[in-house]
Amino acid sequence: MTSDKSLSKIRIILVGGRDVFGREASGKSTTGNIILGRNAFEVGRRTTRSVKAEGEVHGRHVTVVDTPGWVWCCSVENTPNFDRLEIMRSTTLCQPGPHAFLLVIPVNSNFPHICRAPLESQLELLSDKIWKHIIVLFSCVAPLKKKIKESQDMMWLVGKCQNRYHFLNIKSCADCSQVVTLLEKMEEMVAQNNGHYLQIDKGISVGDKQDTGSAKANRRKRVLQACIRDVKQHKTDIRIVLIGAVQGAKSSAGNLILGKKVFAVNRPKTLRTTVCCAINQAKVHNRRLTVVDTPGWYYNYPVEKTPEMDKLEIRRSVHLCAPGPHVILLIIPILTCLEMTVHTAVEKHMGLLGEKVWNHTIVLFTMGDWLGDTTIEERIEKEDKHLELLIEKCGNRYHVFNCKNHTDHTQVTELLEKIEEMMMENNNSHYVPEMESNPCLEIDLMLKTTKTNMTKMNRQTQIIQELLREIKLAELRIVLLGVEDTWKFMAGNIILRGESLFPPKEVLHSFLKK
Ligand SMILES: Nc1nc2c(ncn2[C@@H]2O[C@H](COP(=O)(O)OP(=O)(O)OP(=O)(O)O)[C@@H](O)[C@H]2O)c(=O)[nH]1
Ligand SMILES: [Mg+2]
């Protein structure tokens, strides 16, 4: 049954994000397939380009455009150019303009407060009138109205869309009624918009298709491949240091290189896992590999804001694999938008190792699954100059790792060949760490001071606990004070619950109420 307001043609664009590390998809392609009643969009691999599909659905001609997702907490400025341009291109596939945008969000996802502004920036890039054309589509296996009602942030989202939302059971493809109801909700919305679809601002037109494989991108790839062919003799001993921002997949890359899980990855309840250097070895493809893992910096933080202890650890890394590493792998996750502040943070933190370090550095792009069907070269071309400058600083040496794919061993062998080629260029010499001061001694000293402070702190905690036991407070009010960017909110979250990285505000409220 269709409503009185039924349209003969409906044009839909699917939009949505991914969780903070780009791992969990929102379910746009699956949604598109359920609407069209066939496997029109590829699932199981990240959608990297806007794709159009159409069909007859319950008496209407339906056009659906699937788009790449952004990271929920990343605004437009922090989204890689390639993804941003593809999202914008979706509108050109939907001429003369879309009737509806389905904002796809898994009902179980934690859509925290910090994602509100980035979401607004992503959507309003397409049009400032977009909100009148959006239905929030909660992908789910069972409708969870209560969960939505309990979440201030989800309610904010639904409110922005004038209370338009729909639950789509993604495990129940055969249930036509949920698609019919969704189409009717879209028709209702179009009627409220006086029958109008969204006129896309002319300014954002980006052409029909992004050029794939420009001459420059192809040339870059050829130069890189030629490097590998030049390797005549394999090395028997290679020392590697991994360096990069927090949660960039440094430890995962280390595990992939060594072919075993020796570095800790993603300990729950913490924002970062590696807090001090770790060293491990393995025999891989007839080479003895030594890998040093390091703590990361917060990705666009100036080096001055990185704690001294972390800076010392980073400096210590090159001393740990005496007499020095053959290669420093600079880890850059593919979903990083390398704008100026991020670029500066990378250069300054690399500077901790000394100025000559760049001759021994290879950029290792991680999270290769983000590439989908695109190539790293295409993406480098689309980014602004900072990424290109960084790669050039490393002598055009780069490589891609997908740590989720443990079966593809060529990614490690090719990396080793690139390292060997670089070693040949460096006359087989390793990087010689600058010795103006020994970070290992400095760390010892710092640890001694920390130990003294810890003893003091433990005594203070003991006194507070004794006091609390005596007073038996029914309610405790705490004010967190500190200079800017010292993660006060995180301390508060740990005191209150200590579970999630960014618990929604209402969780905090409920604890505060208690
Ligand atoms: N999608 C995807 N996720 C990945 C990949 N590699 C690692 N991850 C995930 O990224 C998260 C961070 O990985 P880690 O290896 O712990 O990163 P790290 O840089 O060592 O993190 P810190 O030690 O906390 O600085 C983990 O949840 C990994 O499972 C990848 O290739 N693709
Ligand atoms: Mg780590």
UniProtKB/TrEMBL annotation:
Domain AIG1-type G: residue ranges: 235-440
Subcellular location: Cytoplasm, Cytosol; Endoplasmic reticulum; Golgi apparatus; Mitochondrion
Gene Ontology molecular function: GTP binding
Superkingdom classification of source: Eukaryota
Record keywords: Cytoplasm, Endoplasmic reticulum, Golgi apparatus, GTP-binding, Mitochondrion, Nucleotide-binding, Repeat
Record Gene3D superfamilies: P-loop containing nucleotide triphosphate hydrolases (3.40.50.300)
Transmembrane intervals: none
SUPFAM superfamilies tied to this protein: P-loop containing nucleoside triphosphate hydrolases
Protein name: GTPase IMAP family member 8
Principal subcellular localisation of the protein: cytoplasm
Gene Ontology, cellular component aspect: cytosol; endoplasmic reticulum; Golgi apparatus; mitochondrion
Family of this protein: Belongs to the TRAFAC class TrmE-Era-EngA-EngB-Septin-like GTPase superfamily. AIG1/Toc34/Toc159-like paraseptin GTPase family. IAN subfamily.
Job of this protein: Exerts an anti-apoptotic effect in the immune system and is involved in responses to infections.
